[in-house]
Amino acid sequence: MRFAAFTVFVFVMMVCATIIIVSPHIGLGENEQFFLYRALGISRAHALSVPQCLIFIAIIYGILSSGIKQQPNQTRVVPTIFQLSRDLRDTYPQLFEKGPRRFSFNDFVASVAIALATAAIFGAFLLKFSVDYKLNIDMHWHQAFLDYDLNWGTPLFSLRANVLNNFGIQVPLNASLSLFQNLAHAINSNDVILTAVWFLLVATFLLVWLVGAAIRLKPVPRAAVAAVTALISVAAKGVDAFFFIVPPDVFPNELVLGLWWHEAALLALFAALCFFWLGQMSCWWKNVVIALLFAVLCYDDLLAYPAGAVFFVPVIAAYCCALLFTSTTRQETLWKVTTSIVLASFLLLSGFAQFFATL
């Protein structure tokens, strides 16, 4: 891309973004009166993300194409793509550990700094967009039932004491088995929603960190990936201002703003991660601990959130089947098969099928 064309393109996109930003002050409307919303159903937030994303892509392309030799009568697009693929191919192996695992003091300091920066950014988002959690209809709907469960004292292994569920008013949930809900109520019962959201952020960061450790990703890039993933999946708004490829409200509206959806998904993924490690430990008692943790996570996910079992059971089953068929040693295969058989037997003998049939 020639410099003049590049400059004109960026300038035009900046003008478009400026017009969208100042549209309420120049007669183009805001909210439901925004001219693109009335004509095409496109909100200001979604419209603004388009020129921002194009500017971001243009700047990245300009940086990547600098120094690329251009043939006569040929654009730099193809050489830039080939150079980028070569750079990625050379960089990718350096992101992973080879040989014994190492965690130096510098890695520790950098990882802690990334985690603290993530917490600070998320805290700033909460200060500005906390109403998006508190005033969301789905959030109030589900949170009222979860609070009722904890205040009423629904038994751990039964929904019979839940009057709302018995009369068909509430979907089958049991907040007494929810780790994050219990912790949020114990720490700050006056603001359970925002407290629970903090726990979801920490748990998401930890999950991605452990997944990175499982694939031997180095500590610093592992912390960076965990931070970005946690912010994208938990922050209700604000992340799209940093990562222009993230549409507004896509992930949080589906997962976080019901709270229990995100927690149940995390339990399912933690269970799959435990199944991945099962049989890979050198000591038998470590494998036993991992097997018990896998069983507890599966039981808790099904008993606490039976309303979502139709979604989470296939996810856990698919992960377990894939991990079982890709086992690398005979010991790992035996541990995975034995644990699966024992857990399935307990589920059948303990009446799980009848429990879900009578919901």
Brief overview, please?
The protein is mainly alpha-helical and 359 residues long. It folds into three domains: 3-95, no CATH class; 106-258, no CATH class; 265-359, no CATH class. It is 69% helix and 0% strand.
Write a structural description.
By secondary structure, the protein is mostly helical. It folds into three domains: 3-95, no CATH class; 106-258, no CATH class; 265-359, no CATH class. Helices cover 69% and strands 0% of the residues. The chain has 16 helices and no strands. Helix 1 runs antiparallel to helix 3 and helix 9 (192-214) packs antiparallel against helix 10 (219-234). The longest helix has 30 residues, at 105-134. The chain is globular and about 70 Å long. It starts with a helix and ends with a helix. The mean pLDDT is 80.
Number of helices: 16
Question: How many strand units?
Answer: 0
Low-confidence stretches: none
Biggest sheet, open or closed, and with what strands and sense? none
Order of helices and strands: HHHHHHHHHHHHHHHH
Taking all Cα atoms into account, the compactness measure Rg is 25 Å
Helical content (DSSP H or I, runs of 4+): 55-70%
